[in-house]
Amino acid sequence: MDAHQCRAAAAAADAARPGAGAECRERGQPVGEDHRKRGERGYDAGKKVKGRKRHILVDTEGLLLRVVALPADIQDRDGAMDLFLVAKPISPRLELELVWADGAYAGELEEWTQETCGWRLEIVSKRAEQRGFHVLPRRWVVERTFAWICRQRRLSKDYEELAETTEAWVYLAMIRLMLRRLAA
User: Fold this and answer.
1) What's the number of CA atoms in the CB half-sphere (13 Å) around residue 131?
2) How many Cβ atoms are within 10 Å of 167's Cβ, its own excluded?
């Protein structure tokens, strides 16, 4: 049997195996082998985000108050609840009364925030007659903060194994930004 016939026989044997051809993988690697990093990860099909999402709470200037990194498959409303529970212990010092959020946070979160944290959650949504892109009041502040954070190379992608490490790097990036502004 020549080399071509051996390859053809091996391919026929592989094709007879259940589920053959359904995946493309390296030879010699177990089927369940996963080369991704460990840690909690998820997939948000709506935003097409794989890995983690960062939920942030900022002041009116866009400076970071709190950050929580959660698997991407957790809904934004549930992520906001985790963020608010983390931020609640610091709220007496901040005298936090009003939180602005986009339409993804509408619904029962408004009542929950009032009851649990004592803050008023105001949803900033686009007008019904609006067509195309328009800057909405207060909503751009968080987006600008995300842009500041993502300028740091380490935070441009989710490289970290632990969510706590990601949160620490976000805090360090904002500390660096604030120190540069103070020194200028």
Assistant:
1) 0
2) 19
Q: What CATH number should be reported for the domain whose range is 42-127+135-183?
A: 3.30.420
1/10 Cα distance (integer angstroms): 12
> How far apart are alpha carbons 152 and 60 in whole angstroms?
22
| CA dist list (Å): 122 to 12, 51, 110, 143, 178 | 63, 29, 8, 17, 27
Domain-by-domain residue ranges, the chain? 42-127+135-183
Tens digit of pLDDT at every position of the chain (184 positions): 555 555 555 555 555 555 444 444 445 445 444 455 567 777 777 777 778 888 999 988 889 999 999 988 888 889 899 999 999 887 667 778 889 888 888 889 999 999 998 899 988 877 778 787 777 777 788 888 989 998 988 888 888 888 899 999 999 999 999 999 888 7
Angle at 124 between CA 44 and CA 128, to 5 degrees: 95
Total-model pTM: 0.70
Neighbours of 34 (CB within 10 A): 7
